[in-house]
Amino acid sequence: MVTEELDLTGLRRVYGRPGSRLFYTMVARNARHWGWTEPGQSKWRCWRAQRRLEDVLGRKLALPAGSRVLDAGSGAGVVARAMAARFGLAVTGVDVLDFHVREARRLSARAALEGRTAFSWGDYHRLEFPDASFDGAYSMETLVHSYAPERALAEFHRVLRPGGRLVLLGPMSTVPLEEMRAGDRAVLERYLDDMVFPGAKRYHAGNLERLLTEAGFQVEEALDASANYAPTAEALYAYFRVPYALLRSWGPAEKWLNMRSVVEMYGVRQYIAWYVHTAVKPAAEPAV
Ligand SMILES: C[S@@+](CC[C@H](N)C(=O)[O-])C[C@H]1O[C@@H](n2cnc3c(N)ncnc32)[C@H](O)[C@@H]1O
Asked: Has domain 8-280 been given CATH number 3.40.50.80?
């Protein structure tokens, strides 16, 4: 079902269940994103791959130290801290889950990065920041949660200064759901609903670039990085296939949503692409 409002209850279920919290804190070390692997690099070292993905983001942002950057959907703030510590950026994170905001603040204080990272509650479809507040903005695997991607992109455009840069990283289907084989579509759609990914029903590899252009951005690059994400997917599948099967035999699969997504999505991976879109808000608006 596609709705045009924030499904806070669903998001709390996805990220707040004890099984999810355990997965994200212990297994993913607070990051809620995948990893980046180059040919020749080991796929088994998933934490390293996560750090490399953060570095890809920092390089695509390509902003000088001290630049003000919005992290749309900051989770526990792992990416924000990476941008602050490794690229010298001043990052403001927003997230709709209060426990993520609290966690991000706590971990930033522990890392002595509270001066360069700030976190607040916020829905990236209706940001409370004035126009042109930021030099850059990014979404690390959060646009899939968007209930209105056009509105989210319009907000990113509004809060960026002219010349400001936007980087979107994340998964999407290779084709619209209607074009998939029925059985595969059913598996994928159930996953999108359970994980509260309404955005992934609205955009796909074939139309996100156009949506960015319609929001007023100049798309610098639409990089299909599926080959760089695939090794992490393979490693996670190998790590979790058996534990997930065991856990399932003890209780409902919903309890282990994140592990389930890792395992079940592997079966329809031919329909999942991972992209890095880099776009710029033009320095001067085109004349009408
Ligand atoms: C997959 S996690 C990624 C978190 C973080 N970017 C990272 O890589 O660790 C997605 C995050 O987006 C947040 N989120 C979902 N919808 C949102 C919205 N409309 N506005 C702000 N945050 C949102 C979720 O609460 C969650 O923390």
From this structure: no
